[in-house]
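Chain X:
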Amino acid sequence: MYAIVDIAGQQFKVEKDQKVYVHRLDAEEGKKVNFDRVLLIDDNGKVNIGAPAISGAQVSATVLEHLKGDKVIVFKKKRRKGYQKQNGHRQYLTEIQINEIKASGAKAAAAPKKEAAPKAEPAPKAEAPAKVDAPEAASTDLSSMTVAQLKEQAKEKGISGYTSMKKAELIEALS
């Protein structure tokens, strides 16, 4: 039996009695910690996958020790420029031992998903005849129209040179 668990922002494949090095945890040495964000559990071929996590599943572990990782040296250089920078750090780690993997709530995660009902849009169909019936009402308030709408009206009326006109010129030509 194994599980894929999210521990401190990283995903680990863990089994019972396995030792894992993770980013530093706040728990003291010797304390038990529980990880609720279990992404997958494989129980002898029976696989449970969470969406994104399995509800009720839990992995418990014991903190063995806090330590520092190996030294990592970061060296930057730009050739022929005399630029060299050397920096390094040691990552703070926690060694944990997995005690048990519980899959108690794996069946509750497979709940059926609700589907959204398709939305009907009768509003655009009602607006289309209104635009055709009232060209006089639209021509009275030209200043509230966009330039694209004004150019469309100029094209319908057969005004030449409307593509290079500004909004004020279009309003003047249409009125």
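Chain Y:
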Amino acid sequence: MPAAAHFYSAGSSGSRRPSPGPSLGKTVPPDPSGKTQNCANPQISGINSPAPTHTDSMENNFIKCGLAGWSAELCYSSLIARTRDHDKRLMGQTSLYMFPIYGMAAAIGPIRQKLCDRSRLLQKSAVCRGGIYTGLIFLTEYCTGWLLRKTGRCPWDYSQAKLNINGLIRLDFAPFWFVLGLFFEHCTAA
């Protein structure tokens, strides 16, 4: 049995020896009471798991924001296909490149914390925070689009839209980014 599939248990002499058991996560040596600790499932070990670290929450928020952004894009592109092309199948589209781009919205949580720590107005005004998030989303969209375009991989081209900047961002998307930014804020709230 691999070493990762062992729990440590205290023997009668107090020494640690591996004992077989289910491996549900990291295992650590026993606490002074002699209970086996399993960090992945506190119900099994009878202890409370440690609070998530900042890195854990950023990783979780990255996944949440990536999935939320993907879902929003699929819904949007499905509705556009329905209204513009009269496609009743509601077929949306996105790109795998969009997951990490939307996932970067995980940074909104720490940004919100810093903004609200420095300004009472920003604590109370969702309109101000939403405006800041809209600007940050435009900046992220432009920069990632520019990098992806350099390698021939940019999944969007807004050149045909009236309010575009270099075909990389559409200013008429500002209301959508405003709402999505506030939604990401909610997703990343601690």
